[in-house]
Amino acid sequence: MGTLCHLKWLKKTLVSDFHTWWKLQATNTTGKQVPRIYVTRQIPPDGMKILHQSRLGIRLGYTPDVLTEAVAELTVALLLAASRRLLEAAEKAKTGGWGTWKPLWMCGHGLTDSTVGILGLGRIGVAVATRLKPFGVKRFLYTDMSARPEVATSIPADSVTVDELARLSDFIVVCCALTPETQGICNKSLFSQMKDTAIFVNTSRGGVVNQDDLYQALVNGQIAAAGLDVTEPEPLPTDHPLFKLKNCVVLPHIASATVSTRNAMAALAANNLLAGLRGEAMEKEVPL
After folding, report:
1. pLDDT tens-digit profile of 111-166?
2. Where is the D-isomer specific 2-hydroxyacid dehydrogenase catalytic domain (predicted)?
């Protein structure tokens, strides 16, 4: 089978299967057969990074960049859904709750003249800020594990501490990677410093947020609302308390779910795998 046929089959396979393992004849110290190439259609979680850096020399191909635009779009949509109470309002319309006009009925919080704080100013964080600019945001703040002055200047955005981000922001958008440093960083300490009108949005990783603390902050009115596309665990059990809250929008991890994005992810994953099998450099490979 030629390379083109391989590529067509791989693209079709990778659209339906999120991860693809390819095993070569290799053994580890216990005599077990192990994979030598791993290709994924998503940004690799920590476990995979550790795996490929092991003594087994497993190469890891992944698909960054191609999902940036789709994730940024969904992040903005989720922010608006939470801040403008869209799901709650739609439910009222469907169930007979749409009564006579009242001045403050279904009022939410707008972006005009607001301060938006971004936790993690990487590709997606920048793309989110770019999309929020036309809404009339007055100021962007960011917190990142490493200084990003060149990127921040292009927005522009001011670098602040996590505590300052919590205190000053009207909207907090979490776009950071899950690392030992960011595990549970969005917790009681952060929520307790946020404005009671603030909106919290997470489209990064569920492990970045202490969900029990978030629930309490929402129930107690410490923050106004939250929008989550990622949770811990996934899927989130249907009886989870967050689903019972009107001021929390939970989506089933669909940030990259556009047809064009998923096809692009599949194509890149297929090209990575074929390059790995040929012993060539992958288009996108986590460096050993």
Report:
1. 999 999 999 999 999 999 999 999 999 999 999 988 788 889 999 999 999 999 99
2. 55-286
- CATH code of domain 3-66+258-286: 3.40.50.720
Which of 6, 19, 109, 253 is catalytic? The answer is: 253
The answer to whether the CB of 236 falls within 8 A of the CB of 242 is yes
What's this model's pTM, rounded to 2 decimal places? 0.86
Domain boundaries defined on the chain: 3-66+258-286, 68-250
Q: In what order do the strands lie in the sheet with 139-143?
A: 158-159, 139-143, 115-119, 171-174, 199-202, 225-228, 248-250
Counting beta carbons within 10 angstroms of the beta carbon of residue 225, is it exposed (0 to 12), middle (13 to 18) or buried (19 or more)? buried
Helix (H, G, I), strand (E, B) or coil at 111: coil
> Would you call 253 a catalytic residue per the annotation?
yes
Query: What gap in Å lies between CA 236 and CA 159, rounded to an integer?
Result: 33
